[in-house]
Amino acid sequence: MTIAVGDKIPTATLTTMTADGPGPVVTDEFFAGKKVVLFAVPGAFTPTCSAKHLPGFIEHADDILSKGVDAIACMSVNDVFVMHAWGKDAGVEDKVVMLADGNGDFTKALGLELDGTGFGMGIRSQRFAMIVDNGVLTELNIEEPGAFQVSSANHIIGQL
User: Fold this and answer.
1) DSSP H helical segments within 1-91, as ranges?
2) DSSP class of residue 128?
3) Cβ–Cβ < 8 Å for 137, 6
4) Which residue has the higher pLDDT, 117 or 151?
5) CB 26: neighbour CB atoms within 10 A?
6) Is a pLDDT exceeding 80 seen at residue 130?
7) What is the pLDDT of residue 156?
8) 34: exposed, middle or buried (C-beta count within 10 Å: 0-12, 13-18, 19+)?
9) How far apart are CA 25 and CA 74, in angstroms?
10) Tell me, what's the pLDDT at 69?
11) Distance separating alpha carbons of residues 64 and 79, to the nearest angstrom
12) CA–CA distance, 87 with 50 (Å, rounded to integer)
């Protein structure tokens, strides 16, 4: 069952790269008391994700944050080392938190998994963007397969 507007974000542990190496990010703590824009991609370094999705959030980070958002996060079912390398390659700096959902546990808890086994990618995340306010989902934009519109930074800005 897919998460719906008004639902509490499920508890899970994601991973991000810290100065000391991989570190846990518990969703209950990450979303508590904050407004967060989280967008997810099917895979780091993949064409649309690298050419449009992540760059749009980097480019518009200041606009998003100026609308009362405390954090912008990018998530993928990839390991933390891949997410860190992708963020570094894309120049995210401190604009976007790169979150790894290595086993897809959080993605499955959201009900937003994508079966990419036919392409040799395994189970991944659908392309989506959401706004979470103090741990509660307030907006959810799920892309149709092959599309890139409602999960873009520009679309999110219009919802804030």
Assistant:
1) 27-31, 47-48, 54-59, 61-65, 80-90
2) E
3) yes
4) 151
5) 12
6) yes
7) 97
8) middle
9) 13
10) 98
11) 26
12) 10
**Residue with more model confidence, 120 or 88:** 88
Q: What average pLDDT does range 12-41 have in this prediction?
A: 97
Read off the pLDDT of each residue in 66-80 and give the average, rounded to a whole number. Answer: 97
Q: What is the CA radius of gyration of the chain?
A: 14
- Give the amino acid at 1: M
CA–CA gap between residue 64 and residue 117 (Å, rounded): 34
Those residues with Cβ within 8 angstroms of residue 114's Cβ, 6 or more apart along the chain or in another chain: 42, 123, 124, 125, 126
Whose tokens are 């599309």? That residue is 147
Residue with tokens 């963007």: 129
Residue 86 and residue 54 in contact, taking contact as beta carbons nearer than 8 Å: yes
Distance, CA of 68 to CA of 137 (rounded, Å): 16
CB–CB of 137/5 below 8 Å? yes
Cα-to-chain-centroid distance, residue 143? 13
pTM greater than 0.90 (yes/no) = yes
> Catalytic positions, please?
49
Using CA atoms of 63, 156, 25, 51 in order, give the dihedral in degrees to the nearest 10: -80
